[in-house]
Specification:
4 helices, two-stranded antiparallel sheet
């Protein structure tokens, strides 16, 4: 969630402002919690694969979670996010974020490994 607030805070970087104000939705607590339940078992399943394949799996899973959770929220009239631009798919995902989700997935692995090393996670 911290990454999301940081990322949304970068949006005005091209504008003449010194105020970088990030935001999120309360619904993201539930979505990120669900994602952790889904992603952790997958981490063990793909841990012996090469980094490129793992990154592709992470990007695909993150897109799927984002698309499905955003679509479900929309069924209840909730729009926690709306992507725009030529790479947007129904406003639920942006395909040009694939490299970001690829990297975030690999970062997730490192954070989990670090937490496990300190017996935190």
């Amino acid at each position: 969630m911290n990454m999301e607030v940081f990322w949304t805070g970068l949006a005005p970087a091209g504008e003449k402002t010194v105020n970088f104000i990030g935001h999120t939705s309360v619904w993201m607590f539930f979505i990120y919690g669900l994602a952790a339940v889904v992603l952790e078992p997958v981490r063990y399943l793909i841990s012996n694969q090469n980094w490129f394949l793992r990154g592709c799996v992470w990007a695909t899973l993150i897109f799927a979670i984002e698309f499905l959770s955003g679509g479900l929220l929309r069924l209840f009239g909730i729009e926690a996010w709306r992507y725009t631009g030529e790479f947007s798919v129904l406003g639920l995902i942006r395909l040009d974020y694939a490299p970001v989700w690829f990297a975030v997935g690999l970062l997730f692995e490192r954070v989990c490994d670090l937490l496990a090393a300190y017996n935190i996670g």
